[in-house]
Amino acid sequence: MPNGISTEQSSGLLEVTLDRPDRLNSFIDDMHYELRRVLERASADPACRAILLTGRGRGFCAGQDLQARDPKAAGGPPDLQQTLTQFFNPTVSMIRSIEKPVICAVNGVAAGAGANLALACDIVLAAKSARFIQSFAKVGLIPDAGGTWSLTNLVGQARAKALAMTAAPLDAATAADWGLIWKVCDDDTLMDEARDLATQLASGATIGLGLTKLAIQSAADNTFEQQLLLEAQLQGRCGRTPDYAEGVTSFLEKRPASFTGTEHTGNKPQSAEQQQPGDTK
Asked: Which of 129, 119, 131, 132 lies closest to 186 in space, CA to CA?
């Protein structure tokens, strides 16, 4: 693909593929912009109710393409702060703020910012052959694209420091055992399992799933009492959705629910990401 991103949408599920297999799906500028455009469109599209992110070929993503970073060809040091603030940071922030499930199928090596792009997603499945590598130490950098946050919150400081400082590859089975990802799949069943899960979520109560995501992401920064207030606020929003009425009705009628993922119009309370801890308005 010219911009390194390909998409396919059906039955409420948008499948997004990092598509530069000859470069292990490493990012160039156009690829950053295209992925952001695709995610923005998906966030605003009511027909899209879940997103599945994966990579083409033998790798998921090798992070930033370093061919454009060759010191011998550059006129001076790169502005990596700008690279992060302009490209990676808005993308991983968007993944975490989209009020829809974002599933990641890691089909091979996930290195550098590519690993941390995967960890920004809500549910991560990985092929048995996949490896997660915080490769930054090998080029004198720190983990970025949310890596220092994700690693610390998912596996704790001791393991986070060791993974970051040694750049040791972490196999998928250990990643799952440590709680870095959710599930390991056989290589030849990964995409089937990921699509089945994503399709299931795409047919679910989208508002409730999206707010579940945002509430859990807020928990680490809130006190218990603040989280109780946030739960009450978000539950109030869920209770006003047609999907809640359908869920209760289908339960009482002993039939499968048929969710639409829609929400009544009107004033919408702040999302969990927008609300400040302790704000009960």
From this structure: 129
In this prediction, residue 76 has a pLDDT band, given cuts at 50, 70 and 90, of: confident
Q: How far apart are CA 217 and CA 150, in angstroms?
A: 11
Taking every pair of Cα atoms in the chain, the longest distance, rounded to a whole number of angstroms, is 70
Q: How far apart, in whole angstroms, are the C-alpha atoms of residue 231 and residue 114?
A: 32
Tell me the pLDDT tens digit for each residue of 105-143.
999 999 999 999 999 999 999 999 999 999 999 999 999
What is the model's pTM?
0.91
- CA neighbor of 173 nearest in space, from 129, 214, 208, 124: 129
Q: Are residues 186 and 48 in the same domain?
A: yes
For position 94, which CATH number holds?
3.90.226.10
For 168-196, the pLDDT digits (tens) are 999 999 999 999 999 999 999 999 999 99
CA-wise closest residue to 132 among 191, 84, 88, 177: 177
d(CA 43, CA 50): 9
Residue 181 has φ and ψ, to the nearest 5°, of: -130, 175
